[in-house]
Specification:
Blueprint (H helix, E strand, L loop, with lengths): L14 E3 L6 E4 L3 E9 L2 E8 L2 E6 L3 E15 L4 E5 L3 E4 L4 E17 L1
Protein name: (S)-ureidoglycine aminohydrolase cupin domain-containing protein
Organism: Sinorhizobium medicae (strain WSM419)
């Protein structure tokens, strides 16, 4: 077994999803997720979403890096944070707010439960 993992989307199929109806604020966003690593309480992969806006609540810790697109993440009672290609962010457990995809956005991520 190798101790390296290249993020190769051709090695795994995408899971398709959407925000839960009770969290949807606007639009009709669709998610595609390529889970490339799942070991214990750690997950890594690629996530993509089409335009729309929904409420998010984090119980987990997540680091991500925007590969392309434009999204706006806003914490409750906070200022909007515009994210574009090259931006990185950590969302910590307890984060509550909204995610708005302005232009289809793709990110790579590492999540720790």
């Amino acid at each position: 077994m190798s101790h390296m993992l290249k993020f190769d989307l051709s090695s795994v199929g995408a899971e398709v999803g959407a925000p839960a109806p009770d969290r949807l604020i606007s639009g009709n966003p669709e998610f595609r997720t390529w889970n490339l690593e799942g070991a214990g309480n750690l997950y890594a992969g690629i996530w993509e979403a089409t335009p729309g806006k929904w409420r998010i609540v984090y119980d987990e810790w997540e680091y991500f890096h925007i590969l392309f697109g434009h999204s706006i993440v806003t914490e409750e009672d906070g200022e909007p944070l515009h994210l574009k290609a090259g931006d990185s962010l950590v969302l910590r457990p307890g984060f509550k707010g909204t995610w708005e995809v302005v232009e289809t956005t793709r990110k790579d991520y590492v999540i720790r439960l």
